[in-house]
């Protein structure tokens, strides 16, 4: 399990870097492949691209990971507060803002786990503070899975339409994934069989990247939404593997 830390960190770094590239393309062209989640003005898009590109590089090289973790976490929390909380209050039955908000929250949670990993000593468990950040990150990540799980159960018919045609039993898989999200959330938050649950979760997200999102992107190379969906799945896979490695290494 500890060996999952490095591939998880690198997958997460690739996703964060790509989000930065999306913002940069949007800032330069006004269109292109982004930005992810919600539009911003060009100056802010440039600023966010710098933050995300620098953070992705820090995550990838394991240099100044603490700064990157803080930067990404603050960025996603501010974005949730400014862009999505008003929508959640205005239209609480609209699933879109819920999905986007908790995707961002999960990315922030994974960033906190990485921050804790590189705080203090090399792997960051020489004091209580790194443990606190790691636990908070796992709670944010696991809490997001609860929302994803409930949405899969509530909107199973829609989720089933996203399953590739060559896979049988579309509705079954929609509900199965919903239950899997809830089970993984419980394991990750409580710490019981968390390493196994996070490993399976990360594998599931990575499988989606390959079998679901990559083909959709290939058919719509200029569709920013498809790129964002792929990168979110990649970030969730990387974050899951990081949590798997951390929880296994802390036994």
Keyword list:
251 residues, mainly alpha, 79% helix
How would you sum up this structure, described in words?
By secondary structure, the chain is mainly alpha-helical. The chain has one domain. 79% of the residues lie in helices and 0% in strands. α1 (5-29) runs antiparallel to α2, α1 runs antiparallel to α9 and α4 (95-117) packs across α9. Residues 121-127 have low confidence and may be disordered.
Compute the number of structural domains: 1
Average of pLDDT = 90
Strand percent estimate: under 5%
**How helix-rich are the residues, as a percent range?**
over 70%
Cα radius of gyration in angstroms: 17 Å
Which stretches are low in confidence, meaning pLDDT under 50 for 5 or more residues running?
121-127
Order of SSEs: HHHHHHHHH
Structural class: mainly alpha
Number of separate helices = 9
Number of strands: 0
Silhouette: globular
The major β-sheet equals: none
Distance between the termini: 11 Å
Produce a short descriptive summary.
This protein is mainly alpha-helical and 251 residues long. It contains 9 helices and no strands.
Q: Any chance you could write out the topology, listing elements then pairs?
A:
Elements: H1 5-29, H2 42-61, H3 65-90, H4 95-117, H5 128-154, H6 156-160, H7 170-190, H8 194-219, H9 224-249
